[in-house]
Write a structure and sequence with these properties.
Helix 5 (129-157) runs parallel beside helix 8 (181-193) and helix 10 (210-222) packs antiparallel against helix 19 (544-577). A 5-stranded antiparallel sheet has the order 4-3-2-1-5. It has 643 residues and is of the alpha+beta class. It contains 19 helices and 24 strands. 37% of the residues lie in helices and 25% in strands. It starts with a strand and ends with a strand. It has 4 domains: 3-127, no CATH class; 131-207, no CATH class; 243-561, no CATH class; 579-642, OB fold (Dihydrolipoamide Acetyltransferase, E2P).
């Protein structure tokens, strides 16, 4: 009875020959059906197997014999030139090497690429010694890494975080290097404990808390050089700029704003009209494309806000040089317009628009969230005058209504500004980084208050006029537009349908947003050079670098918005936790926003994928909230009562 030896997917196969042809044989292995094997693929043939070996035990015997072979000694026995495996089998096992031993030699050589290279059917050549030593060292290193990885897995499962894993924690959750052994250890441990990777790292103490995880992983990704930054102080002397002694300006911001970008002024003219000025901080006076300030601002793209924390685009001491702080005289880009409340056309209402670079004195920094500035429409249209800048605010309000009406006419419908805003206040010192367990107060504030409308309408006015100014001079910028396809940023002006304006860009927050800073740099070129601005502007039309900055800005701005939403959700859940009863429950009213989406009435905690049935929007429910998952930022929700 004849047998053949061949390999299949690297495994030794010994099969009985059932029929032999000139070019192939039909064989039958243990547990397999009849197979056709080409003779050129057969490595060995024998009439009979060695004593004590049958067809079933042949293959295991080959593997066992190969595993016990001394590869170092075999390598020493091998000739320097190409050889047949049967030759080396006789050298190693002796002249009487049997079928199993010869097959074992092939198996050993085939699975030892460190020592032997393949040269053809049944043929091998020994590797050189230096190459072998390098490969063996690499194998030893890999085995050591695997042993270390196994130790780390055990540590992580036990709730202890190795230092090497702790150092890589943020890269691990961001999946920056899936081949790193620390990532593999964390992945293995998380699979064994059936935990998501962030939860496993929390379990092991890599993060001190869920808040630490949500904050630190984001900062590591978007601020790889840390939050602190130092930039050279401005050396350009802007004090030669003319000082406008005719006007004094005031700003309107919330109490937490330290980068004051914008201010307003109102002059009463002899003809009864008012000359209104919008004044924007002018850091572009000292920023040159690709200098240290521009490079740093472009790396951050915007100030990033989360409840209780702010990471500024530019360092505080640098911002202070240009922030429109009360009592200071600062350089600004000003846009002036004459307002005639009795004008019958838009052109008659708003005329003589002028943009200049100058210095203005800032008389007041008003804060719209203090009680004295909680003004109603009646306060801004009636006789009351016991609030700061009352006469100027009344003019700005009347003009803002006219600006809004013009946009409504272009849009074809009134602007919907009834969405609720929420402010988050943490009980902590101002300059202290949150730890995640502070008491949080969340206060609802209806959008579209008169003060909000004053600020927003006049910022829109400046942004629209300056966008048109750049567009008419063929100077590119980072414009904002909206079509039926959605909002987008582009380097050429297009209408913004939702706002009802023919062109729009961000240019009124250059201390807080890179798009505004870049656009102000372009705007200065138009102010200074007029028709030659396309050649003088820092960024030219169709420039690849401008397109790259546009894409980078959009990407970073979205990331910041996502992080703000995520941290607001965290603090909403803290608000819920701080009000839970001893059973870990909170019953709270919620409102239907749309199908399968609800929001708590008191805070902006949205409950997605929650069945609302046929309930109409604004329908209220009483919900029972419990079991907060601080990693996923989710919780269990049950309807307690229909209302």
């Amino acid at each position: 009875m004849a047998y053949v030896f061949y390999e299949q997917s690297g495994k030794p196969i010994v099969a009985q020959v059932m029929e032999q042809k000139e070019q192939h044989v039909h064989v039958k292995g243990i547990g397999s059906s009849l197979q056709k094997i080409k003779l050129k693929d057969v490595l060995l043939q024998t009439i009979a197997l060695p004593t004590g070996v049958d067809a079933q035990s042949a293959a295991p015997s080959i593997e066992q014999t190969a595993q016990s072979a001394d590869l170092e000694f075999i390598w020493e026995c091998a000739p320097d030139e190409v050889f047949e495996f049967t030759f080396l089998a006789h050298e190693y096992f002796g002249e009487q090497a049997n079928f199993i031993e010869q097959a074992a030699m092939w198996h050993a050589l085939h699975h030892a690429p460190i020592y032997f290279g393949k040269k053809g059917k049944g043929q091998f050549i020994k590797q050189n010694r230096e190459q072998i030593d390098i490969a063996l060292a690499a194998v030893a290193k890999k085995e050591e890494r695997l042993r270390q990885q196994a130790i780390w897995v055990d540590e992580l499962i036990a709730g202890r975080c190795p230092d090497d894993v702790r150092k890589m924690r943020d890269a691990i959750v961001q999946k920056k290097n899936a081949n790193d052994m620390s990532y593999k250890a964390v992945l293995a441990a998380s699979e064994q404990l059936n935990l998501p990777i962030p939860a496993l790292l929390l379990h092991a103490g890599a993060y001190s808390s869920a808040f630490d995880y949500h904050r630190a992983s984001f900062i590591s990704e978007h601020y790889p050089n840390g939050l602190a930054a130092t930039l050279p102080m401005p050396t350009t002397d802007w004090h030669a700029l003319p000082v406008n002694n005719v006007v004094t300006a005031f700003s309107i911001d919330d109490s937490f704003t330290t980068e004051i970008d914008d201010a307003f002024s109102v002059q009463v003219l002899d003809n009864g009209c008012q000359r209104i000025g919008v004044h924007i901080a002018a850091p572009s006076l000292v920023v040159v494309r690709d200098d240290a300030v521009d490079t740093h601002a472009a790396s951050r793209m915007s100030t990033m806000y989360t409840p209780g924390e702010k990471v500024t685009m530019l360092p505080d001491d640098w911002v202070a040089q240009f922030s429109l702080d009360e009592g200071s005289t600062k350089p600004v880009v000003s846009i002036y317009v004459t307002f005639n409340a009795t004008g019958e056309t838009p052109e008659a209402q708003f005329s003589d628009v002028q943009t200049v670079i100058e210095q203005v004195h800032i008389s007041d920094n008003l804060r719209h969230d203090v009680p004295e500035l909680q003004l109603s429409v009646e306060d801004l249209t009636g006789e009351r005058s016991d609030y700061p800048q009352s006469q100027a605010l009344k003019v700005l309000w009347k003009a803002a209504q006219a600006l809004s009406a013009q946009r409504d006419a272009m849009r074809g419908k009134p602007e919907n500004n009834n969405r609720a805003d929420f402010s988050f206040t943490l009980e902590k010192d101002v300059d202290v980084t949150p730890t995640g367990d502070e008491v949080v107060q969340i206060v609802q504030r209806q959008r579209g208050s008169p003060i909000d409308k004053i600020v927003s309408e006049w910022m829109i006015f400046a942004n629209v006029r300056w966008a048109q100014m750049l567009d008419s001079h063929h100077v590119p910028a980072l414009f904002r537009s909206q079509s039926p396809m959605g909002v987008r940023t582009s380097t050429h002006a297009q209408p913004h349908l939702a706002m009802g304006v023919p062109a729009y860009m961000w240019a009124t927050s250059p201390l807080r947003r890179y798009a505004d800073l870049l656009n102000q740099m372009q705007l200065r070129a138009v102010i200074d050079h007029g028709v030659t601005a396309p050649m003088q502007a820092p960024f030219k039309a169709k420039e690849v670098d401008l397109l790259k900055r546009m894409s980078a800005f959009d990407e970073k701005y979205r990331a910041y918005a996502d992080q703000q939403n995520l941290m607001e959700k965290y603090w909403c859940l803290q608000w819920v936790k701080q009000r839970m009863n001893e059973h870990g429950h909170l019953e709270a009213p919620a409102i239907v926003i749309k199908e399968n989406l609800m929001r708590l009435c008191d805070i902006p905690l949205y409950i997605p994928n929650f069945p609302t049935g046929d309930a109409a929007p604004s329908t209220q429910r009483i919900l029972r909230l419990s079991n907060i998952d601080w990693v996923a930022l989710s919780l269990d929700v049950q309807v307690v009562e229909l209302s």
